[in-house]
Amino acid sequence: MSSNLEWSSSEKKVARRAFDKALEVALGKTLAEFKKKASETATFSDMWEIEDYLQKQRRTLDQMFDYRYSQLIIVFASLIRKGYLDEKLLAGLSQDKRDEIARFLAWHARQ
């Protein structure tokens, strides 16, 4: 399974770039939603709701973006599925890693 895969130095660079790009996309979406919510804030209660939203987003993103090599295949599949990562950014990974990602995507699609 994915935890037994070896990562070459070139694959590690590809993985880091893809991971960082996906994180940038996710943070960008969060920032846009924050700005929207902030512009619509009219009450003190609204302000605290934004704080709750940001705390929830931080926890979600912290869980989603796990850069351990033993987890990256699952992480990449999840990020692709959620629209944060373009699969083309993983082109430098070995075929076995891309096949593992495809298996996770297919499995999740059946669920």
Tell me the β content: under 5%
Number of strands: 0
Taking all Cα atoms into account, the compactness measure Rg is: 17 Å
**Helix fraction bin:** over 70%
N-end to C-end Cα span: 19 Å
Mean pLDDT: 94
The tally of helices reads 4
- Main beta sheet strand tally, sense and closure: none
Helix-strand pattern, N to C? HHHH
Please tell me what the overall shape is: elongated
Taking pLDDT < 50 over at least 5 consecutive residues as the criterion, the unreliable ranges are: none
What is the domain tally? 1
Structural class, from helix and strand content?
mainly alpha
Explain what you see.
The protein is mainly alpha-helical. The protein has one domain. It is built from 4 helices and no strands. Helix 1 (9-39) packs antiparallel against helix 2 (44-64) and helix 3 crosses helix 4 (95-110).
